[in-house]
Every structure is written in C-alpha cells, then in structure tokens.
C-alpha cells in the first residue's frame, strides 16, 4: 500500500512593500547619531515566500485567499536609534534602542474540519461573520458544525498569520575606555549590557490553538538571530590588548 505522495511546485506569490528613512549625523560635543525608520509590509501564501514545500491548508483550494497573509517576520513599523557619545575621562558610550510592531502568528481551529487527518493543526481558525474579531467563537464547534456554518455562509476562514503578539522593544549599550600603555600598545576595557529594561520579547511565538486554555499566551522568545539577548537583562565585560 502506498503512503502519501507529495508533488512540489514553485508556484505561489509574495509581495514586499517598504519605505526606508535613514538619518546620520556627526554632531558637536563628540556625539554621533544614527536614526532609521522602516515602514513595510511582507505578504505571501502561507506566510513563507522562500519555503518551497509549504502546502496549502486546503489541498482542493490551491492559493486560496485565506492562505495569503503576512510572513512570520513581518513588522509594519521599525524604529532604531543608535549613537556614539564621548564622555569625560575617555569613556565612550554606545547605546542602541530598537522598537518594532508586533509580529504575527496564526490561530488554528484545533479540529480537522477539512478532513485531511491533520488534527486541526494547520487549518486556520474559523470566525463567525457576526463576531469577526472573536477567535474563540467556534472553539466548541465540531468539524461537522464548522462545515455547516461555512456552507451556510455564516462563517469564514481567518487569514494566515491574522493575529499579532506584543510589540518589540530592546535597549542595549556599550561602555568602553582606551588606556594607552606605550607608543604602540594600548588596552581597551569594555562592558556591554543587553536588554537593559529586562523586557521579554516573544515575536510570533504564541500558543495558537483556540481550543487550548493557553491560546494567545507566549510559547517562546523571539528567535535569537534577531537580537543578541532577547529574553532578559544580561551583561558582559572584557578587554582588548593591542600592540
């Protein structure tokens, strides 16, 4: 007996629109500043423009409108301020602050209303037309009730990545001081602080099953590749010897 057969194709659609504004200035009093703002929107089918094997939620409705939504790293606004400030006694202060809009995640129904044996882990949550902002409205529905509601036109399937978590904020800083030992030798002492406000950033990592009591609560921190230390305040000290 044959198992499932997967046919891969590169067809699909993605879209990115962005506006980038950057301001750099070397000012008086030993201060330099970098300010950037990004207004953007990243959309694709099932959220992953570069994922070749991403299957549609309903195999009989290829490229369905409800599968078109934000990518997991989509942030509508991102604002970054950084700079270098030369303080007295040869101390250099280098702060950076990042603020970004909340990232998306996909609420799932938790029941296999398409009947493909997925346990409802890939089917987006179904919303009542009379209560279009309440993801929990169909949490007690059976698969048969959901299909009847969709057939009657009283419900609709929510878009991929239609929910948002919390906004991102992080403030990091670096302090350093150079001490000259000889004409060609010097030692630089430094201290780096990450997430100085001790804010937890979760990105799009949320429990997304609407039938779970944990729905909408954080399931993990934002990917470590996005920031240096996203979970909590941390610091490190060191020195560099040059000769």
Describe this protein's structure.
The chain has one helix spanning 143-151; strands spanning 14-27, 31-45, 68-70, 77-86, 91-100, 104-105, 126-128, 155-157, 163-164, 168-180, 186-194, 234-242. The protein is mostly beta strands. It folds into 2 domains: 14-102 and 164-242; 108-157, no CATH class. The strands form 3 sheets. Strands 1, 2, 3, 4, 5, 10, 11 and 12 form an 8-stranded antiparallel sheet that branches. A two-stranded antiparallel ribbon has the order 6-9. A hairpin with a 3-residue loop joins strand 1 and strand 2 (31-45). The relative contact order is 0.14.
Topology:
Layout: E1 14-27, E2 31-45, E3 68-70, E4 77-86, E5 91-100, E6 104-105, E7 126-128, H1 143-151, E8 155-157, E9 163-164, E10 168-180, E11 186-194, E12 234-242
Antiparallel strand pairs: 1-2, 2-3, 2-4, 4-5, 5-10, 6-9, 7-8, 10-11, 11-12
Largest sheet: 8 strands, antiparallel
Strand tally, please? 12
- The overall pLDDT, averaged over residues, is 86
Helix segment tally: 1
- The oligomeric state is single chain
| Share in helix | under 10%
Q: Span from first to last CA?
A: 71 Å
Domain module tally: 2
Structural class: mainly beta
Which spans of ≥5 residues are poorly predicted at pLDDT below 50?
Answer: none
Could you say which overall geometry the principal axes of the C-alpha atoms support? elongated
Strand content: 35-45%
Q: Give the SSE string.
A: EEEEEEEHEEEEE
**What Rg do the Cα atoms give?**
24 Å
């Amino acid at each position: 007996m044959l198992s499932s057969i997967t046919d891969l194709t590169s067809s699909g659609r993605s879209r990115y629109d962005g506006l980038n504004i950057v301001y750099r200035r070397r000012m008086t009093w030993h201060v330099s500043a970098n300010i950037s703002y990004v207004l953007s929107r990243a959309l694709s089918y099932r959220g992953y423009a570069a994922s070749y094997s991403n299957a549609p939620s309903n195999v009989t409705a290829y490229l369905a409108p409800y599968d078109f939504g934000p990518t997991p790293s989509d942030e509508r606004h991102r604002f970054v301020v950084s700079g270098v400030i030369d303080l007295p006694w040869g101390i250099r202060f280098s702060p950076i602050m990042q603020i970004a809009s909340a990232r998306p995640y996909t609420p799932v129904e938790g029941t296999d209303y398409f009947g493909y044996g997925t346990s409802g882990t890939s089917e987006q949550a179904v919303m009542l037309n009379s209560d279009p902002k309440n993801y929990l409205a169909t949490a007690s529905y059976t698969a048969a009730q959901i299909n009847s509601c969709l057939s009657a036109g009283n419900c609709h399937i929510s878009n991929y990545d239609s929910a948002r978590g919390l906004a991102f904020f992080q403030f990091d800083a670096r302090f350093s001081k150079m001490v000259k030992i000889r004409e060609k030798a010097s030692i630089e002492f430094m201290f780096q602080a990450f997430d100085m406000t001790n804010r937890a950033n979760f990105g799009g990592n949320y429990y997304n099953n609407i039938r779970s009591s944990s729905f909408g609560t954080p399931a993990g921190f934002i990917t470590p590749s996005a920031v240096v230390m996203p979970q909590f305040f941390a610091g490190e000290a060191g020195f560099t010897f040059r000769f």
